[in-house]
Amino acid sequence: MAASPELLDVLSKDGQKTGISKPRGDVHRDGDYHRAVRVLIFAENTQQMLLQKRTDCKEAWAGLWDISTSGHISAGSSSLTTTRRELIEEIGIKLPNDAFEFMFSYLEQSVTNDGKYVNNEYNDVYLITTLDPIPLDAFTLQESEVSEVKYLSWEEYRSLLAEEDPRFVPYDVNGRYGRLFEIISDRYKGNMEERSMALEKQLSRYRHVSLSAELTGLTDADKETLGLLIKTAKIMDEIFSQQVWCSNPSLRDWLKEHAYESRLDKLKWMYYQINGTPWSALDENEPFLSTADSAIKLLPDSTKPVTGWKGVEYRAAFPLSRPHGANLYPRDMEKREFELWKDSLPDDQKKEATGSFHTVRRQSEGMSDDTVFLSNDVTASCVHDLYSNPYSQEYQFLLAEAADLLYKAGNLSSSPRLTRFLHSKADGFLTNYYHESHIAWMESDSKLDITIGPYGTHIDTLLRYKATFEAIIGIRDGEAASQVKLFADNFQVLDKNLPTDETYQSDVIHAATIRVVNLVYRAGDLKGTTSVSFDLPNDQRLTLLLKNVAEAKGTEGLLDFESLYTHVICREYCRALGPHTITLANGQQSSVRLDLLPKRLIKPMYVSFLTGCFHSLRFRLKKAHTQAQALLFNHLFEKGGIVLLPDETCCVDFDKVENGVESLSREILTVLGRGDKAAARSLLDKYSVISQPLEDALKKLEMLQVPADIAPAFPIWPEMN
User: Fold this and answer.
1) Fewer CB within 10 A of the end CB, N or C, for the chain?
2) Residue 149's beta-bridge partner residues?
3) Nearest C-alpha neighbor of 428 from the set 410, 445, 449
């Protein structure tokens, strides 16, 4: 019986799946859009690329030299699975997922064979970086596809393509495909001194500080408990490292091992320690490392054996851009594929698919290599290739270790409520059920304050469903809590005196629960930047204020710790509130600011506010909160509340800034109350811009090289060794 024809997914013009599949021959006959993969093997030490010669019987580009391997993605299959399959089918090399670096996708369009072969093909391009060329005798060539292979320097290959040499399959090196050669050139022809200077500049944006907390009042048992909690937090670091990207742990270990081989290696390790990933948090996650900096791994059995050759040595790859789905979803999964799969599930499984505590994986990646590689329609028997995996299974060995430490810490604690919290959190690690530990966290009354688990929300930018592991270990500050209580007690008064019409005010409001702690240790999804406050766990009604972090953020002149700290409390409790006249319980007329803020803090508060604007706007308008800061700055500048001085520095005009804040608050609150989308858009279009005064001030700030953040270290005292 004749084999069934290979089916391909038909795509729309913009590359999205249509839900239609057709035989491969019909797709090329009709010119349907579809997807394929292209793979290049690059030898680092010789700067050469592996090329294959297509057999004379191929339907397209017969007898011409081409890239290492390529192939269509069969209907229902995935990009990475196809890439691995084509590599072993065509040239006999079996490599793991972390050998493949996704570079980019591009649309290739051509018509050959007298118009009979129409190619509208979206190509996913992958790069495999080996140290040395693989011996030609190690390859096993597929006779129907490949007639021979050879290595050629990437520069010569690019020149031949640019010259449109008839011996080679044509690629437009002046178009998107040419980006591949540019990336290789940048990686290996860069000056080590220039890279070192660039990393030093990035490091200079951080002020290195040592954070400690007062241990007075802690019993010996508490201190022993604290030691176990920090050990548990370090496990959160390991889990988070895996959640970022599959090769991130090996990259970390490699950088640490080689940190003192050169000045550049030391700088790479220092900056990696701050970020916890190869992407720079202060640069909108632009990479500061590449696969060329990554770990080298040896595979002795990935090809047929060759006498005297130990096997393939390759670089563990990571993408140029931080992947939107991190390592929480299959790296080649698209939103459309997820939605189709999710919609096919019963309600209970839909909740798992969109739940915060489940990864999404491919069934095909769990199959044996032989099953994946030897079948062109490996997933055809499955309606969908995706499945949900609970964190308790995905990270079961690490979470079991963490749970054991939490059980021990809970048994040591003298606080029954803390014991309940730690034990319920340990149960959550093992069962994937965290509700009980959330309640116990709210009710905990211990001097030790622990937030630990899957609460990070920054890494999943693909679908924003999945949480990442983190830990904040602190000691509560009872004295500072009294200042917080003052705001909480007057929250209803604050709301009633918003500078807006009563029509838009709420009858019932709920103040957030705010705890003030001094940070002892942090781990997991808290790298790259250090915030003064956190909304945890996954609930904006629960906020931690880190007092010693606020102290370390830096102060001078009118910008002091108390004003910065008070500003943070105001922001967390009453983000859009402005000053207004109120009537106290005794009938006396007063104002919100006079009753809640000491007079000496009013001017420093406005300076703290201006400083916060600049801190955010150094990163331009790429996020909603930076657009909001631009709106605030430009509106207050227009009203004269902020003044640009001749030396391009800014100051606050204390006689005008208050009216400016109140008028803007009134306008924003009215827009919100009316639900006036057009007015909101008009406000953003007018003020959420980098105006010339703002641009001048930002350039001045860059020239002065003022640190943008702190890089905290956590001293370990003898009791915890």
Assistant:
1) N
2) 52
3) 410
